[in-house]
Amino acid sequence: MHDISIISMVFTAVLALLCLFLILTPFFKWDSFLNFSAKGQDLVGTKEALLTTLNELEFEYKMDKISHVDYKSLKNQYESQVALIMKEEEQMVDDHVDKDLLADVEREIEEQMRELLKKKGEGK
Question: Residue 121 and residue 124: Cα distance in Å, rounded?
Answer without folding.
Answer: 6
